[in-house]
Amino acid sequence: MKKKILEDIKKAHAMGYKGFGETPSGNYRYDDPSYEPIWTLLEELGMVPNFHTGVRSSGIFDMLRPATLATIAAKHPKLNIVGAHFGNPWYDEAAEGSRRNKNLYWDVTGSSLIKKENDPGVWSEYLWWTDIVGKGLPHTPVDVKPAFEYIVFGTDEGPDEAAVRENIRRFNKMLDANNVPDSSRAEMYGLTMARLHGIEVK
Asked: Which domains are seen in the chain, by residue range?
């Protein structure tokens, strides 16, 4: 690990930056031991890393599996992590990583909501636990939040208003199909990210 990388992170934090990423993977899995000094420093500074997970244009993407983030989340319980794209196509792996690690969150940007446009209720198969269902089961922390509250709204669209509105439409279609309550929607649309970044919302 080059010392300059860690120094650059410290400089960015001193300038007021609260997040780190979107972090792409190079030739190693995110949970490779060589990256440990970065995750340790981000945990100490309270910065929130955002990782790219799932497919990539090169066609080589095994190192981007969401399970790698679950490993980091378990080793660094005070490090809040956001994974992009909900681990597409490993949705079950991503969801179970959050069920076990309450500091692991995801967005559903990219192609996933387009792929599942005609089956928007499928997300409950992965995000199956609630504040009642699943409590007390092995490997489920007693303070786990309802599953959909581990999803945060995001978009990888450009600034074109029509594209952003379409992304919001697809996201709302998912929420409606899965009967996500308003309290959870508020968390997903902004309150969770505000909390992770220490932003006060009146």
From this structure: 3-196 (3.20.20.140)
